[in-house]
């Protein structure tokens, strides 16, 4: 069980950072750009089939978060935000065979010795166009399948408590709590890949209303509510 799956709703986590800059170091901009390009060139996108790219893998926001959340908790809390990105993306490229660990270590050592060395440059208009189009259009998880929702507005539901593995879309503070279905969203949605805890295949999503006292007891003001969008796979009928 990884602590990073349970951070939401916890108090007293120190130290807190109030850094307002999106990018603190120049390399963070580059790793963000690499991630965006990987999403835009992911092999599940129809438009990519005609783009001359050597990237042949499936990559989404979910894969990035899986790489970060799969870290050892000590490493997860030690590294800064984009350091987690860098570790997850680098690990993916090594595991997928795009680069060997030895090649990566060698390049890293070379750039550390000469920090002002020019970075590799390449131009491919079709790739640039695809990345820009992806930024405009995005990638919707909504699926063109008809699935009857298990719950309706007003139903009382209990949040399941599945064991998380490398990645989880369920906030830890909601586990075992009861709420009320407030909205049933139209259609079905997937989560790109199975997470091992009930999410992956197309399913309905609900907006669930929770009494804050049910979650945090008397630490919250009376008659206050929170609303959370939750996959159906994380909900069940009350015991």
UniProtKB/TrEMBL annotation:
<dbReference type="GO" id="GO:0018822">
    <property type="term" value="F:nitrile hydratase activity"/>
</dbReference>
<dbReference type="InterPro" id="IPR003168">
    <property type="entry name" value="Nitrile_hydratase_bsu"/>
</dbReference>
<dbReference type="InterPro" id="IPR049054">
    <property type="entry name" value="CN_hydtase_beta-like_N"/>
</dbReference>
<keyword id="KW-0456">Lyase</keyword>
<dbReference type="InterPro" id="IPR042262">
    <property type="entry name" value="CN_hydtase_beta_C"/>
</dbReference>
<protein>
    <recommendedName>
        <fullName>nitrile hydratase</fullName>
        <ecNumber>4.2.1.84</ecNumber>
    </recommendedName>
</protein>
<dbReference type="InterPro" id="IPR008990">
    <property type="entry name" value="Elect_transpt_acc-like_dom_sf"/>
</dbReference>
<comment type="function">
    <text>NHase catalyzes the hydration of various nitrile compounds to the corresponding amides.</text>
</comment>
<comment type="similarity">
    <text>Belongs to the nitrile hydratase subunit beta family.</text>
</comment>
<dbReference type="Pfam" id="PF02211">
    <property type="entry name" value="NHase_beta_C"/>
</dbReference>
<feature type="domain" description="Nitrile hydratase beta subunit">
    <location>
        <begin position="141"/>
        <end position="236"/>
    </location>
</feature>
<dbReference type="InterPro" id="IPR024690">
    <property type="entry name" value="CN_hydtase_beta_dom_C"/>
</dbReference>
<feature type="domain" description="Nitrile hydratase beta subunit-like N-terminal">
    <location>
        <begin position="1"/>
        <end position="122"/>
    </location>
</feature>
<dbReference type="GO" id="GO:0046914">
    <property type="term" value="F:transition metal ion binding"/>
</dbReference>
<dbReference type="Pfam" id="PF21006">
    <property type="entry name" value="NHase_beta_N"/>
</dbReference>
């Amino acid at each position: 069980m990884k602590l990073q799956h349970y951070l939401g709703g916890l108090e007293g986590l120190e130290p807190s950072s109030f850094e307002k800059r999106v990018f603190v170091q120049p390399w963070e901009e580059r790793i963000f750009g690499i991630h965006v390009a990987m999403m835009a060139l992911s092999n599940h996108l129809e438009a990519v089939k005609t783009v001359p790219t050597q990237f042949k893998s499936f990559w989404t926001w979910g894969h990035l978060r899986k790489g970060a959340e799969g870290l050892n908790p000590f490493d997860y809390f030690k590294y800064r935000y984009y350091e987690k990105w860098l570790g997850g993306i680098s690990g993916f490229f090594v595991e997928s065979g795009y680069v060997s660990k030895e090649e990566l270590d060698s390049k890293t050592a070379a750039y550390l010795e000469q920090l002002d060395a020019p970075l590799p440059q390449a131009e491919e208009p079709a790739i640039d166009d695809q990345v820009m189009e992806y930024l405009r259009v995005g990638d919707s998880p909504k699926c063109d399948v008809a699935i009857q929702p298990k719950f309706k507005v007003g139903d009382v539901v209990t949040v399941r408590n599945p064991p998380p593995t490398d990645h989880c879309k369920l906030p830890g503070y909601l586990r075992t709590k009861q709420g009320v279905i407030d909205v049933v969203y139209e259609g079905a949605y997937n989560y790109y890949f199975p997470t091992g805890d009930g999410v992956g295949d197309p399913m309905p999503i609900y907006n669930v209303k929770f009494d804050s006292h049910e979650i945090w007891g008397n630490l919250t003001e009376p008659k206050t509510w929170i609303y959370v969008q939750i996959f159906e796979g994380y909900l069940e009928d009350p015991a």
